[in-house]
Amino acid sequence: MIPGNKDTRDGIIFSLPFLVIYLAFMIYPLLSGLYISFFKWDILSSASFLGLDNYRTLFSDEKFYSSLWHTLEFVLMTTPTLLIVGFLMALAITGSSPWKGIMENVFFFPYIFSMTVVSTLWAWLMQKDWGIFNQVLINIGQNPISWLTNEHLAMWSVALTTLWWTAGFNMVLFGAGIKQIPKEIYESAAIDGASYVQSVRHITIPLVSSTTVLCLILQIIASFNVFGQVYVMTGGGPHGTTRVLVQYIYETGFKFFKMGYSAAMSYILFLIILVVSILQYTLLGRKENV
Question: Could you tell me the CA-to-CA distances from 53 to 36, 48, 173 in Å, in that order?
Answer without folding.
Answer: 12, 11, 43
